[in-house]
Design goal:
The structure holds two protein chains of two kinds. Chain A is of the alpha/beta class. Chain A is built from 19 helices and 20 strands. In chain B, a hairpin with a 2-residue loop joins strand 2 and strand 3. The longest helix of chain B is centred in the last third of the chain and has 28 residues.
Chain lengths: 510, 352
């Protein structure tokens, strides 16, 4: 590489488009990195197109339109290997390392270990790995298994791996979401070292403070468009949030059809109470109560412990602390006990947990209601089929025939089947994790209506969502989580997207 | 749009759809049968067909239990020694003067207990891999068979058992009637009980089943107990045919049973298939073996053909599956918002 200043910017993405079926994930994605060594922050709400634009940049996703230029030359990547050849490497959100292999093996994974006369030359391989670690200012033992490292150290090994491929642009997708503050500081030190060595970083984060701490430039995505970009100094936290959620969103997107809870409902004793619920290492001392007919939202970043809390209450993961259903303690770790006590749970991943894809709509819908029956009784009695048929009609599951496998339905309809399990014989408390993830807009509105109707019938709902506008739409009260703890509870009338964003990111001062 | 109309397809349409997994083996079975019947007139004689059915009875009975095990995404390698143990237990009980009906019940319960309490508990309750558990019990139970029997056959003279194989009712031997009964019972369990639904749910998605309140460990224990029960029945049928409780453990039996189940369209990954397909799978193996031996073809050819057909049948199913989902698959990456294969006809379908 030469030091001559090229007139062309290092990286330009212009007018990038990507559609999935009818969903426009990106319609005008733009991202520019002017000179080597820049730290570029990318920010946007969930569903704004961040993952898609980074997937395109790293060669994992093919764009439907737009231009990608590296140093002025137009390129198109058909695989991550192509992107790596142009010097662009993605460090994934979930660490993709082999925990039992050594640091060296992980860094040099993919036949780049040094070969000697008799097989692998371990000594020189370790030296090569150490030299990469040195560039990052790290002093790990290259012989140590990766599984013995802390999460942030594993993240660094991933960065080292990307760096060992002579990358000039590193993409870090939420590297800090599951790290403690000390660990974040050490990652940032590495990013600074890289920057002074001329390696650029694209950093995705939800935490505004981090953006201002480390980034030179910031790009904001909203609804698949780049809505703002510029130097970090040109933004303030307020203007960033406004760009993220949209100028008008804070006023108009809030609140829908739901009337405030009556005084009688507010005075009713809680149907579910969580006391000191913990599940190490992800959940610490959560206290929460739900009243009949109330919809409570769980807001927070990915990894803040929302899913863990729902799983701990339902018994899908071990917990300590008490969960009381109408003052009766619930045995931990047993979903079937939770169901008997009147708790329901709609998991976030409908394909692997919400439904059994190969089974029919009727069999899936009856699964919960029939779980307490004698096992040698016949399924699909006329009464059961009628019950499913009624529920299916009322929530508009779109299929000709309830006997077809759920795998043949669209995402929104699959999700309705996952919900229908709990509608045949409604529980007293229903826990929902990302109830509208990956469904189209129409189905989303229908699912929201189903939830509101359930609450109107006296069911208490606890809804976890990474989309704050969804929570603002249907919830009476929103609980914000951060790093496994409840950090704030906001009544609906006091909540707006900007405030939830700030609280989720750890700005608790307002 | 007040009421949505769900139609119930005709029985014929449902049967046609339900037959998809085992259509390949069914077609091949019919072709092989017709070819053999034309080439070797002896093959299609009533006498030979009765012999054929009797000869596949042990495999058939074991394969019925194996089908439910495979639907839960497992397999039971220990069926052969469980059958042998049940047989030895029966012979020893008869020697000790226990009434024959009681001896049979005890042996059958013994087989179910070995399958359920040992295999089922380890797999269902302690989440040990089915392969490890049943490979271990295959080995250990075989050792018990040898120890207990001193590797000697125990003669069984009890007429109720010996006559089973020779008595004919409506032209069919006792073992064939037992085959039919086991088939009907398993089909009933599979189709007409909640337990049958649980078996499919556990195999289709164990976490979805658990989160819906299904007692997953209990389901798995019962499935392996049923497999053990079938193995014990097969062990007693074997005694009725050869007149002794043999210490010979046919290590090939579970593999042949698994092959028959797979031929019948049940997937190793669980959640699909059923005993009707397995019946065709066993018949195919039996017809091929019987027909080729009548034709004087060495039995090794039967092994080669069975093996090839097995792989081809599974491959054909895989290719068909890929074709069915191809139109909807993305370019290999998982799109963040939605990766559901949306079938155009259902997506576009609106209510009337």
């Amino acid at each position: 590489m030469t030091d001559t200043v090229t007139p062309s910017p290092l990286l330009v993405m212009e007018g990038i488009e990507k559609n999935y079926g009818g969903v426009r994930a990106l319609r005008d994605g733009r991202l520019t990195i002017g000179r080597p060594g820049t730290v570029h922050g990318l920010i946007g709400e969930n569903g704004s197109g961040k993952s898609t634009i980074l997937g395109i940049l790293s060669g994992q996703i093919r764009p439907d339109g737009g231009a990608l230029l590296v140093e002025g030359r137009s390129v198109s990547f058909s695989s991550p290997v192509d992107a790596l050849r142009s010097g662009i490497a993605m460090v994934s959100q979930e660490t993709a390392l082999a925990p039992l292999l050594s640091v060296t093996e992980n860094i040099l994974l993919g036949r780049r270990l040094v070969r000697g006369r008799a097989g692998i030359d371990w000594k020189r391989s370790h030296e090569r790995a150490r030299s990469v670690l040195d560039r990052l200012g790290l002093s790990y033992d290259p012989r140590a298994p990766v599984g013995s490292l802390r999460p942030d150290q594993r993240q660094m090994v991933e960065i080292a791996r990307a760096l060992s491929l002579d990358s000039r642009v590193l993409i870090l997708d939420e590297p800090t979401s599951s790290l403690s503050e000390d660990e974040v500081a050490s990652i940032f030190q590495v990013i600074r070292n890289l920057s002074s060595a001329g390696v650029s970083t694209i950093l995705v984060t939800h935490r505004l403070s981090e953006l201002f701490e480390i980034c030179d430039e910031i790009t904001v995505l909203r609804d698949g468009r780049t809505v703002a970009s510029g130097t970090a100094e040109s933004f303030s936290p307020a203007t960033l949030v406004a760009a993220m959620v949209g100028d008008t969103a804070a006023e108009t997107r809030v609140r829908g059809e739901r009337a405030p809870l009556s005084q009688a409902m507010l005075d009713a004793p809680p149907v579910l109470t969580a006391l000191n619920v913990s599940s190490e290492p992800d959940l610490h001392d959560v206290e929460l109560s739900l009243r009949p007919g109330e919809i409570v939202g769980l807001a927070g970043l990915v990894g803040a412990g929302r899913s863990d809390l729902l799983e701990a209450i339902f018994g899908a993961r071990p917990r300590s602390g008490d969960v009381l259903v109408e003052n009766v303690p619930l045995a931990p770790g047993r979903p079937s006990a939770a169901i008997t006590s009147g708790i329901g749970y709609v998991p976030p991943d409908r394909k692997t947990e919400g439904v059994v894809l190969g089974m029919s709509v009727v069999d899936n819908a009856m699964m919960v209601a029939s779980s307490g029956r004698f096992r040698l009784r016949p399924p699909r009695t006329r009464r059961d089929v009628q019950a499913v048929s009624d529920i299916g009609a009322s929530i508009r599951i779109r299929t000709r025939d309830l006997g077809v496998a759920v795998s043949t339905l669209s995402g929104g309809n699959q999700q309705k089947v996952a919900l229908s399990k709990w509608l045949i014989d409604p529980p007293r408390v229903l826990l929902l994790d990302e109830p509208t993830r990956g469904v189209d807009v129409a189905a989303k509105a229908e699912i929201h209506q189903i939830l509101v109707d359930l609450a109107d019938r006296g069911v208490a709902l606890l809804v976890s969502s990474s989309e704050n506008d969804e929570l603002l739409n249907i919830c009476d009260r929103i609980v914000v989580m951060l790093r496994g703890r409840v950090v704030a509870t906001v009544a609906r009338k006091d909540a707006d997207e900007a405030r939830l964003s700030r609280l989720s990111g750890g700005h608790l001062d307002d | 749009m007040t009421t949505e109309h769900f139609t119930q397809p005709s029985i014929g349409a449902r049967l046609w759809k339900g037959s998809r997994p085992f259509r390949p083996v069914f077609v091949v079975l019919v072709v092989v049968f017709v070819v053999l019947a034309i080439a070797q007139p002896v093959f299609a004689s009533a006498q030979n067909l009765q012999n054929l059915l009797t000869s596949i009875s042990v495999l058939w009975i074991v394969a019925m239990g194996m089908t439910l095990v495979l639907i839960t995404a497992g397999a039971d390698l220990s069926v052969a020694p469980i059958g042998a143990l049940a047989g030895i237990l029966l012979a020893k009980l008869l020697q000790a003067g226990v009434p024959v009906w009681l001896a049979i019940i005890i042996s059958l319960l013994g087989g179910a207990a070995l399958g359920g309490f040992v295999n089922g508990t380890l797999i269902g309750r302690f989440n040990v891999s089915f392969f490890v558990v049943t490979l271990g019990t295959l080995t250990a139970f075989t050792g018990i068979v040898n120890l207990w029997s001193n590797t000697e056959s125990i003669p069984v003279t009890e007429p109720a058992i010996i006559n089973l194989a020779v008595t004919r009712f409506l032209g069919l031997s006792g073992p064939v009637w037992i085959m039919i009964i086991i088939f009907v019972v398993t089909l009933f369990i599979q189709q007409r009980t909640f337990f049958g639904r649980d078996v499919y749910a556990v195999g289709g998605s164990i976490s979805a089943a658990r989160l819906s309140g299904i007692r997953v460990p209990r389901t798995i224990i019962m499935v392996y107990a049923f497999s053990g029960l079938c193995a014990a029945i097969a062990g007693i049928v074997a005694i009725s045919r050869i007149g002794v409780a043999s210490p010979q453990v046919d290590a090939n039996l579970p593999l042949q049973a698994i092959a028959a189940v797979l031929l019948g369209g049940t997937a190793l990954s669980g959640g699909t298939g059923g005993v009707v397909g397995t019946a065709f799978g066993v018949l195919f193996i039996g017809v091929l073996s019987n027909g080729l031996s009548i034709a004087g073809v060495p039995s090794f050819w039967q092994q080669i053909v069975t093996g090839v057909i097995l792989v081809v049948a599974v491959l054909a199913d895989r290719i068909g599956l890929r074709r069915r989902t191809k139109a909807t698959a993305e370019t290999g990456s998982t799109p963040p918002p939605e990766s559901t294969p949306v079938h155009p006809e259902t997506a576009a379908k609106t209510s009337h």
